[in-house]
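Why do we care about 3D structure at all? Because function follows from shape, and shape follows, mostly, from sequence. That is the central idea of this module. The next example makes it concrete: a single protein chain, its amino acid sequence, and then its structure expressed as C-alpha cells.
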Amino acid sequence: MNRKVCIITDSRAEYGIMRSLIREIDKDPELDLQIIVTGAHLVNEFGLTYKDIEKDGYQIDYKVESTLASDTPEAICKSIGLGCISMTEALSSLQPSMVVLLGDRYEMLSSAICAFVKKIPIAHLHGGEVTEGAIDDAFRHSITKMAYLHFTSTENHRKRVVQLGEDPSRVFNFGAPGLDNIHLESLMSLSELSSSIEFDIDGKTALVTYHPVTLEDNSSEEQVDNMLRAISNFDFKAVFTATNTDTYGRVINERVKEFCRSNPDRYKFVTSLGQRRYLSALRHFDLMIGNSSSGIIESGSFAIPVVNIGNRQKGRQKGPNVIDCEYGDRAIISAIKLAIGDEFKKSIIGIENPYGGLQDGKAGFHIKEKIKEFSLEKRNLMKSFYDM
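And the structure:
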C-alpha cells in the first residue's frame, strides 16, 4: 500500500514555498499525495488562494475553516482552538501516514498539535529559524519539538534544531525549497508582468510587503504610516502585496490601499501576486521594502537590494543584499537611499544565497526522498532529548 503524505497549507506564500515538494510527491508512484487547506487560503479578503492550488492541477482533499473575521489577539486564540477541532476531523477522515508542515503560523501549530496527539509523524520545514519580533518564533520552535523529521533552510538553522534537542540523524539541510521555483517557473518579461497586474511599470520600481510585528508595543498603524511616508519621498513606483492574517493585518492593508488609491499611477495594491508573478517581480524590480521573509530568503537569488524594516525578521540569517533599519521614517529613507545607490548595487552582484542548500534547485526532490526513506514500521515517536 502506498504511503499517504499529507501536505497542510494555510497561505499563498507557504504553498509557493512547498510547491516543488508537492510536485515531487505527486509524481512519485510509491506515494499518495493528500492536501489540506486552511487559514488565509479560504478567506475571500486574501484572494481565496486555494484556487491557485486547483489551477496547478492538484486535488484538495479537505478544507479546514479556522480563520475568524476579526484579527484581534482574542480572535487569533479562538482560531487556534477552532483549528484544532476542525483539523482533528480532517486527519481522522484522511488517515495520512505522515503530515508535512512548514514554518511557524498559528494554523500550523493547531495542525501539529492534532497530528502529534494522533501519533502521526510530522515532517517540519524551515525549523530552527529566528524571528524575534513575531509570535511565530515560539510557534516554530514548538512545532519542532512535536516533529520527527526536520528539513531546515540553512546549516545554521540545522544546528539550532539540534540545539533544541533533536537527533542530528533526523535533521537535514537541503536549503529552502521555495528557491526551486526559480528553476521550475518560466518567469514573465517586464511587459507581461505589467500587463498581468494592470499597472504601467517603467523606471525604478519597488516591491513592498509589510506584515504586523506581533510582539511590538507600537501600533501597526504607526509602523506602516512611517513606511508609506518614507516611500512617498522617492519618485520610484511601488507594487504592494497584502499582509497575512496576523493580528491587526487588516489595518495595514487598509492603510496601503488608501495610499495606492491616492496616487494610482505610481502605486499598485495586489492582494496576491502568486508565485510566478512574485518571482518575476524579484527579477525585474529595483528593490524590496518591508519585513517579509521573502525579502530574506528568495531575494538573495536575484541579488535585489532589500530594506528590511524593524524586528519581525530579527535573528534570521540574512544575505549581504539585506539592509536592516528601524521603524522611523527617517531611518527608512536613509536605508532606501543606500539600497538604490550604485555603490551598494555593485557590491551585491554575484552574491550566493545562504538559503541555496546544495545549489541544485532540487530541495523538494531531496526532501521527498528522505520522507520516502523514513521507516514507518520502525518509527519511535518517543524521542530522546539530544544533548549537545
